[in-house]
Specification:
Blueprint (H helix, E strand, L loop, with lengths): L3 H4 L3 H15 L5 H10 L4 E10 L4 E12 L2 E8 L3 E6 L7 H15 L2 H5 L2 E8 L2 E8 L2 H6 L2 E6 L3 E7 L5 E8 L12
Antiparallel strand pairs: 1-2, 1-9, 2-3, 3-4, 5-6, 6-7, 7-8, 8-9
Length: about 190
Amino acid sequence: MTTFTHRCAHPAILFACSIMVATMAQAAPDAAALSRQLAQHSPECGTFQQNRWLADFELDLPSSGSFQRLDQALIWRTETPVRTEILLSQDNAELPPGYRMLLPVMTALLEGDWQRLQDHFQIVTDGELSSWAAKLTPLDSRVAATLPSIQVKGGQQLQHIAMAFADGDRLNIELTPATCEPDPAPQAP
């Protein structure tokens, strides 16, 4: 009977076997360790570069701006091409349903709360803590019919979010931590 080590005795096969063993030894980052790392390095504020592809119109819509995390909310300020500010909060009655659905995902991602994400997604991670990637697949079939998956990447913090929608639309967001800007002083009457 031929053993595994005997099969790997030939130099070319030995090289291939060593690659296989090294690949098997590399494991995806532990979800708990990744969650702790992201929570420890979660920025309160940051900037974003966003690119939205609208498949029906074959139109690319780039934008940029900043964000600030609050308790159970997120302020998303678009600075180009148009200045807008939206409060992403479950308490915001004017928040469109699509934003309301994405709010818990965005805040959980920014905070590194994988437990909350695992309540709604199957998560498969890859890489290592310093350079990781994850694929989030919705557990709810109604959500999956609209948003089949979310791809995220990062290091110490979340750096990239890619959403591919069932209708062909795509949303890519690059995030960079930044110092929070102080609130402007109130104007005297």
